[in-house]
Amino acid sequence: MTGPFAIGEDAAVGFNKIAWLVTVTAALITALLLFLSGYNGYGAVAVAVGLSAAINLR
Fold first, then answer.
1. What's the domain range around 27?
2. Which residues are within 8 A (CB) of 35 and not within 5 positions of it... i.e. 6 or more apart?
């Protein structure tokens, strides 16, 4: 089978990268909500977690 959805072809983005992207996005959304709620310290920790997870996206 040929074409863009042939079985056995590597996808442009692997599942590992998708999982890390979801983790980074969740951490940044959490940080935003914490900052908006006034929990600045916890928001900073959530940003740090997001940045730490973002290292795995390279």
1. 15-57
2. 43
